[in-house]
Design brief:
The complex is a heterodimer of chains A (about 800) and B (about 350). Chain A has about 800 residues and is an alpha/beta fold. Among the domains of chain A are: about 1-30 and about 125-290, NADH-ubiquinone oxidoreductase 51kDa subunit (Rossmann fold, 3-Layer(aba) Sandwich), CATH 3.40.50.11540; about 310-360, no CATH class; about 490-800, no CATH class. Chain A contains 15 helices and 24 strands. In chain A, helix 4 links the parallel strand 8 and strand 9. In chain A, helix 4 runs parallel beside helix 5 and helix 10 (about 395-400) crosses helix 13. With about 350 residues, chain B is an all-alpha fold. Chain B has 2 domains: about 20-140, no CATH class; about 185-340, no CATH class. Chain B is built from 18 helices and no strands. Chain B has helices at about 15-25, 30-40, 40-65, 70-75, 75-90, 95-110, 125-135, 135-140, 155-165, 175, 190-195, 200-205, 220-235, 240-260, 270-275, 280-285, 295-315, 325-340. The chains are: A alpha/beta (about 800), B mainly alpha (about 350).
């Protein structure tokens, strides 16, 4: 390590294999200072300009915005906000072609500048060293900084690296021909970039910071060296001009002789790479409080009258850039965003500049000749000699053409960085990179298919096992006499089944008491249609009675008891989950139910959120005398967890339901549905409680030949809620229900399925509310209650004939 | 405004297939000149015959395959095959030999396998071996160099020999091969092989007129010509150094070991390197990209094995030279060699 640092400090670099020397064409654009464009007529600002999720819109059509005002706020992981590049009116928020090779439309905010260019209130920081790590990260995040070198990786994620960083590498290589945006930025703003580096040094505390600059930028090297003189932890390293030395992995090898493991990230080997433009933006965000709303863009190519670098507001149309610099298009003009090696052609010039746009190249046909026809590969391996990743592009090409995906993986296709060096040198002008891109997509799709197929197989196996179990259970039931009495014995039996509870009270005064209750109940009954209802109502009655009687109820059932340990200042958590399902198959129908239960106590609040998603698929084969039906429905409930004045409750519920139905022979039916619910709501001032509920329901139906039907549904609910300032209480309730129904009908034409179920699994904590006097001692206790209830009901129905 | 879409990269090195082939053909010129000087203009006649035949063959086969004709002709690969074949066969071989060989190389070896890039075997060498096996007498009747001929022959006479088998004066090729000393002369490799088989030592054998002090007269220069052309190819980055170095190093090491083991019957390293088809094979034939190994490590192995086979067949086999056999045998081993010599990809097998 010390030896390595000594070598680095001596200026040693470690060449990577391969690489090419395309004509630089840099002097076309790097001789003048950066100019500033006049305000455009309109700005098209896409919500997503980086890798990750969109932010959430916080402005609306018609609203006046100030320069620098946030247009979105980050919501999910990896989401980065965008800001108004100038003051003006939002004239529209709509889908526009994106600055992406696909140009697929993306949601954009259209701003008509008012010409005032008036800033919103900025909050510059003069001494970032006084800020905490998190404060700095938040500034970088809120100011919308994302990698400006090409990929657009959110900078706040990188800057918050959990892994120790030994080497911070600053990518100032700019190895693509034509592009000089970083070059001129370094010449003009070296001090700002170094200040940005120092902020990163504060955040990441690397042993050494290495700035890699190609030796074709002497002015930039001199400027950076002068600016970094005061900081001996920054080394300005001159690297030979060879493409693609600016590739992240290649630069790491070049500067540190380390290689990023395949499939890994640089942080795995203690390295982090940042682009100079990004670091300058970090500097602006911190010291001036300015969000990322503009960047340097090289506008170049033989069709441009005044090639050079410009400060362009994000959202500026390419057309405006071209017009301002003078543009005489040739027939079959190509306009490339990015460089000639890795850039992509634009379908229209009506596309806004984004955070990753570093160059607009409008070449004529002499400087970048149109590709000739693809000729046969002669295996000359010029591509392999040029490949910086030591791949065998020529072999990959043969495998890609013959769709030999295993061979492609064996030959490490996914280590290809698509730099284009192979296609550049290919004497047969084979568009190698294009073949790899297609093959990569195909392999990914194939893998997704495989996962899907495996899951389906797994489901099928489980279902088969379950059907066998059920059949066995049914046969056993036939041997038994059906229960006829609904006396206290019956009640006892059901109660026993429903509430089999375990208690684990903790006796320590200073400690929390944990109570966990798990109840499981199974009830199986073989009924005819009319008999199902009384049974259900009985269960419901049972439940109601249990709730009302609260403590007495518990005491009565000594064998099976639930313990809740509340205290006078604690909250009681009540979770109730109810689920109902009704199915009918006469024609294709879908139903879904959602029930939400919220429990509140005198000091608590309950948050309940439920999201449900349902999918239904139907595949029908047209055959006479067969009717295909699909029914799928699901519902889920997530209950809320209570919290007290010091608590917070987060409730998340995920529900998923699946329904399948397969019919063979004359009729084939498929049903599939899934739903998921996830809710999260944070609550109070000191704590957070997380409640998660997962419910899953499955219904399958198989009808064979003449008419066999099976219905099956399951649902599960899990709730968890944490509790007090020192403790956490988790309550989880899982309820699952299954219902099956098999009906045989003599006639094929009429097939019906009815299925309905309802279940409720309340948590025991609910009862604690009514008895505050009990065993309440301490403010430091928490109660954990978990209840799992499961119920199954099965029904075998024969139609047209009694059982 | 309508913009044209294209896939990256948008830039190209302007290397092209036809330029590549042209460069290789140009690099043959020093060797060709040496052959012309020492063995007469018969080489040129063979070359013209070959060029015409491959062009016609290529056109016909492309028409039959219903593929565009001009791109196939225009890439120059057929002409390169013609040049290599013409340089390989004896200058005064009968006209039908080169015509059959050229046709076979293009139609059977190249196009019937799918055309350029798909052929398993080096077309020129496959054709050469076909001719050598089918017409062993015609294919081994190398003339001694012009200086040694008892009856120096003119261009017109060479033409006559190639097309009729006899000169205008009625000499057959066997009569022409008689040297000034009245002894029929073979190639140096042949002579050494025959003489050592008859119990002579190498130094005794080297007393023959076809040798100067330690090399076959003329052959050394021809090999030197191809060496120069080959070095140019490496410098122009048309070929990588791995295959020629593999071949030459292997021949050098084998012959040095042989010389040390049996100095009396082994002609030694320099003789092997500058005799027969060594340089032509190492730089122009073994390096045919389509049929050679494609990884750099693989190329070294491929070249070394060719060198080994060349030496073994020259020393212990039934043929005086063996470049064609060695190349064809190794062509078959290419997929295996390539598979086991993949380079280490970036980020694989790194020690953290």
């Amino acid at each position: 390590m010390e030896k390595l640092i000594a070598q680095i400090k001596q200026g040693k670099v470690w060449p990577f294999p391969g690489g090419i020397h395309p004509p630089g064409q840099k002097t076309i654009s790097n001789t003048q200072a950066i100019t500033r464009l006049p305000l455009p007529d309109k700005l098209i600002v896409p919500l997503k300009q980086h890798i990750g999720a969109n932010g959430q819109l916080i402005v609306e059509k018609g609203q006046l915005v100030l320069k620098g005002q946030a247009l979105t706020k980050p919501v999910a992981n990896w989401s980065v906000p965008i800001h108004a590049p100038t003051s003006g009116t939002i004239t529209d928020i709509c889908q526009m072609p994106s600055a992406h090779p696909s140009a697929l439309p993306e949601l954009c905010v259209i701003i008509e500048p008012d010409g005032q260019d008036s800033w919103c209130v900025l909050a510059p920081v003069t001494t970032p060293s006084l800020l905490s790590h998190d404060q700095l990260i938040n500034i970088i995040h809120d100011r919308g900084i994302a990698g400006m070198g090409g990929a657009g990786f959110p900078t706040y994620i990188k800057a918050d690296s959990r892994k120790a960083i030994e080497y911070l590498i600053v990518n100032a290589v700019e190895c693509e021909p034509y592009i000089t945006a970083d070059d001129v930025l370094m010449r003009e703003h070296a001090a700002g970039i170094i200040a940005g580096i120092e902020i990163m040094q504060q955040l990441l505390t690397p042993t050494l910071t290495i700035v890699g600059i190609e030796d074709n930028k002497p002015e930039a090297i001199a400027a950076m060296q002068a600016a970094a003189e005061h900081n001996d932890k920054i080394i300005i390293q001159t690297v030979p001009t060879i493409y693609p030395s600016g590739g992240e992995k290649q630069l790491i090898k070049l500067l540190t002789n380390k290689e990023v493991p395949s499939g890994g990230i640089p942080a795995d080997i203690g390295v982090l790479v940042q682009n100079v433009g990004t670091l300058f933006a970090v500097n602006q965000a911190v010291f001036e409080g300015k969000p990322l709303i503009e960047r340097v863009i090289t506008v170049t190519g033989n069709t441009i009258h005044k090639p050079g670098n410009v400060w362009a507001l994000l959202g500026t149309e390419i057309k405006h850039l071209l017009d301002c610099q003078g543009f005489s298009p040739v027939p079959q003009q190509r306009v490339v965003m990015g460089g000639p090696m890795m850039g992509f052609t634009l379908p229209t010039v009506r596309i806004g500049v984004v955070k990753t746009t570093n160059c607009i190249l409008a070449p004529d046909h002499d400087e970048l000749a149109d590709p000739g026809p693809e000729k046969a590969c002669i295996r000359c391996s010029a591509c392999a000699d040029a490949c910086p990743a030591s791949l065998l592009p020529q072999q990959l090409q043969w495998f890609a053409k013959s769709k030999e995906y295993d061979k492609l993986k064996e030959h490490n296709l996914f280590d290809c960085i698509e730099c284009g060096a192979c296609a550049y040198v290919c004497p047969s002008e084979i568009p190698l990179v294009q073949y790899y891109r297609v093959a990569k997509v195909e392999i990914k799709e194939q893998q997704a298919e495989q996962v899907k197929a495996e899951r389906a197989k797994e489901r099928f196996e489980l279902r088969k096992q379950r059907l066998e179990r059920e059949q066995e259970a049914r046969q056993n039931r036939h041997k038994r006499k059906p229960a006829t009495e609904k006396s206290a014995d019956e009640k006892q039996k059901i109660a026993d089944a429903l509430a089999r509870v375990k208690n684990k009270p903790a006796k320590d005064d200073d400690k929390s008491a944990v109570a966990a209750a798990i109840a499981r109940a199974k009830a199986k009954k073989q009924h005819q249609d009319t008999e199902l209802e009384p049974d259900n109502s009985e269960v419901a009655l049972e439940r109601a009675a249990r709730k009302e009687q609260a403590r007495k109820y518990k005491e009565q059932k000594a064998a099976s008891n639930t313990a809740a340990v509340p205290d006078d200042k604690k909250s009681a958590v009540a979770a109730a989950i109810a689920r109902a399902k009704a199915k009918k198959a006469a024609a294709s129908e879908n139903e879904s139910d959602n029930t939400t239960d919220a429990a509140t106590d005198d000091k608590k609040a309950a948050v309940a959120a439920a999201i449900a998603r349902a999918k239904a698929k139907k595949a029908a084969q047209a055959e006479p005398a067969a009717s295909v039906e699909n029914d799928s429905s699901e519902s889920e409930v997530a209950t809320a967890s209570p919290a007290d004045d010091k608590k917070a409750a987060v409730a998340a519920a995920i529900a998923r339901a699946k329904a399948k139905k397969a019919a063979q022979a004359a009729s084939v039916e498929n049903d599939n549905s899934e739903s998921e619910v996830a809710t999260a709501s944070p609550a109070d001032d000191k704590k957070a409680a997380v409640a998660a509920a997962i419910a899953r329901a499955k219904a399958k139906k198989a009808a064979q030949a003449a008419s066999v039907e099976n219905d099956n549904s399951e649902s599960e609910v899990a709730t968890a809620s944490p509790a007090d300032d020192k403790k956490a209480a988790v309550a989880a309730a899982i309820a699952r229900a299954k219902a099956k129904k098999a009906a045989k009908a003599e006639q094929a034409a009429s097939v019906e399925n009815d299925n309905s179920e309802s279940e409720a699994a309340p948590t025991a904590i609910n009862e604690a509310e009514g008895k505050p006097e009990q065993t309440a001692q301490d403010k430091k206790k928490a109660a954990v209650a978990a209840a799992i209830a499961r119920a199954k009901a099965k029904k075998l129905q024969q139609e047209g004939s009694d059982q | 405004m309508k913009l044209t879409m294209a896939s990256s990269p948008h830039s190209h090195s302007h290397k092209s297939l036809s330029r590549l082939m042209q460069t290789v053909i140009l690099a043959c010129i020093p060797g060709l000149i040496a052959q012309l000087y020492f063995f007469g203009t018969g080489v040129l006649i063979q070359l013209i015959l070959a060029l015409v035949t491959v062009s016609i063959s290529e056109v016909i086969i492309m028409l039959i395959r219903k593929r565009p004709v001009w791109p196939a002709i225009g890439d120059g690969s057929a002409w390169l095959t013609a040049v290599l074949l013409a340089l390989s066969i004896p200058p005064l071989a009968p006209w039908w030999a080169i015509v059959i060989g050229s046709f076979f190389a293009i139609v059977i070896v190249k196009q019937l396998y799918g055309g350029l890039g798909f052929n398993l075997f080096n077309p020129a060498m496959a054709a050469y071996v076909l001719l050598l096996i089918s017409f062993p007498v015609q294919m081994t009747t190398w003339m001694p160099i012009n200086d040694l001929l008892a009856n120096p022959i003119s261009l017109a006479q060479q033409l006559s020999v190639i097309f009729n088998g006899f000169t205008n004066g009625g000499f057959s090729i066997d009569q022409l091969r008689v040297g000034v000393d009245g002894v029929t002369m073979a190639t140096p490799l042949d002579t050494i092989k025959t003489d050592t088989a008859h119990g002579l030592t190498v130094s005794e054998s080297m007393q023959a007129a076809i040798f100067n002090s330690w090399l076959g007269r003329g052959w050394g220069w021809v090999n030197l010509g191809f060496l120069i052309g080959g070095l140019y190819l490496i410098k122009a980055k048309v070929i990588n150094w791995h295959i020629p170095v593999g071949v030459l190093a292997s021949i050098a090491v084998c012959s040095a070991i042989g010389y040390i083991a049996a100095p009396g019957t082994e002609p030694g390293m320099i003789f092997h390197l500058f005799s027969g088809a060594t340089m032509l094979g190492a730089f122009f034939i073994a390096t045919d990209p389509v049929s050679a190994a494609t990884t750099n490590r693989g190329r070294l192995i491929y070249g070394a094995l060719i060198g080994l086979l060349v030496y073994l067949i020259r020393t212990f086999g039934g043929y005086p030279d063996a470049m064609a056999f060695a190349v064809l045998l190794l062509n078959m081993a290419v997929p295996l060699i390539d598979y086991y010599t993949q380079p280490r990809t970036y980020g694989h097998g790194v020690n953290k």
